[in-house]
Amino acid sequence: MKHVAIVAFEGMSMFHLSVPLAIFSDATLDKNSFSVKVCAEHKGPISVSGGVDLFISHTFEAAAQADIIIVPSWPPEQEIASTFHHLLLDAYKQKKLIVGLCLGAYALAYSGLLDGKKATTHWKFGSDFKKRFPSVDLDTNPLFVINENIITSAGSAAAIDCCLHIVKSIYGVKFANQIARMMVSPPSRTGGQNQFIESPVVHKPSDTRLAKLVDIFQQDLSDSITVKQAASLCSMSVRTFTRHFKANYGTSFVSWQIMMRLNASLELLETSQTSISTISETLGFSSEQIFRKHFKAQFDCSPQAWRALFNSK
Length: 313
What we know:
Elements: E1 2-7, H1 14-26, E2 34-39, E3 44-48, E4 52-56, H2 60-63, E5 68-71, H3 82-93, E6 97-100, H4 104-110, E7 118-119, H5 126-132, E8 137-138, E9 144-147, E10 150-153, H6 157-171, H7 173-182, H8 208-219, H9 227-233, H10 238-249, H11 253-271, H12 276-282, H13 288-299, H14 303-310
Parallel strand pairs: 1-2, 1-5, 5-6, 6-10, 7-8
Antiparallel strand pairs: 3-4, 9-10
Helix pairs in contact: 1-6, 6-7, 9-10, 11-14, 12-13
InterPro entries: Class_I_gatase-like, DJ-1/PfpI, Homeodomain-like_sf, HTH_AraC, HTH_AraC-typ_CS, INH-QAR
GO molecular function: DNA-binding transcription factor activity; sequence-specific DNA binding
Pfam family, one: DJ-1_PfpI
């Protein structure tokens, strides 16, 4: 059994606290895999977001006995107390796993543990983080970064990927995927994936020409409409169409087509036994190999792995 300490503090986000709690406690069917304690500098009540009050029963003394210390968030402007500082330094020296989820990287940076090391945090706070901690090699692109016995993750949902990675590294991919399924989450993405994951925007643009194009494509996803053909359908030059489409959808027409097809493939994988080759052909991919390549790049797993997790038929 691995002992996990999750650091809590006054005013923290309930969401950030709930992610490691859910993965290491609530969603774990094998109750002998992790023992979880929520710890703070002092015992007693704290208020978290949403008007929720929590009573903390464990101090940093209990956290010092843990195998894994998780800091799920931290106020960017707030330096850490000396007791917290010593907890992190001692844990690092003892080769315990120290995890800074999202803005939790700030606490680790204040301790000095990230000096000279690569780390990540929420992309929105990248500039602020670099100003406060110029000695840290910050990279806001990855979902999470592993450096010795320290892991830092990007914002919000990336914390789920990071925690699932920890589970996978200890108990294996099958166990981690069981937890992912319990949480109705896809298998954990790798740390090297970017925080920004393109998704198709399905709203109808105010421009009726683009709206007509979107309707045509959605009616038959196998239809291979080129950029030149799309521009012609919209009565625009290729250059104008390319600029206009990206302004409305935030991505290129080709990337949007791929994502629309990939999203459609998820439903087929989850609700049918249609073969992978038939799915790729039905959705207009030039080959099964190309479909697999795009699927892996977007969801960091194979179509078969997705089906195994989410198809109950």
